[in-house]
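TL;DR need structure tokens for one chain.
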Amino acid sequence: MLLVENLKVVYRGVILALQGVSLRVGEKEAVALLGPNGAGKSSLVRAVAGLLPKFEGRVLDGHIQFLDQDTTHAPPERVSALGLTAVLEGRPLFRYLTPVENLLAAGHRLKGRELKEGIEEVFARFPRLYERRNEQAGYLSGGEQQMLLLGMALLTRPRLLVVDEPSLGLAPKLVEEVMRTLDGLRREKGLSLLLVEQNARAALSLVERVYVLEQGRVVFEGSREEAEKDQDVMEFYLGKEVVGFRQAKRYRRRKRWV
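>> reply
TL;DR here they are.
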């Protein structure tokens, strides 16, 4: 469904964020992209969603293919129309609008009854949003804002959902709830999922395959089972037998040479 090959991304003509990244997501497959801050995860999300120019970035080399169509330099509206929806980190909502108004904006391609039923489905799936449907979205809790973003994404009728750091800033119980929601949506709607996360424990609970990104390069690719058996991945991301900053740095040096 999504194929990224040898992708290089540069910002402002000088800052190289991705250095030859290759990645694939199959039909109805859930894939995790793990990595520390600054690894290039958000750059990959922006690239596949056609949003790089909005952030003064561009694809320097390589290509992106979605549903057998070249979308390397496609504008975001074309990528979205093909069925790829990206939920960006930082919860970018219309903060002065209500949840209802945010949903109406997200579902602008739907008409009449289809839009009405889509919004009703979102509120049925997220009852807390319905309770706060007439409040400004900026006053919702972090978990409620994440639910609203997922609801907005559903109204775009995606085939591939790319979600960037959905657990960021959430309490553990809310992280579990968000992950259960993503897993349920994927299975019920038959979606493909690219989950971009730092929280490896949460991500590994619902994916089949894993990529680890570090300093703009893929340093690990394999199944979830292979990731769970890889000592470096588990130590660095789940904290097994790791104490302090020095050992984390040792992991980084060793992985770059693998």
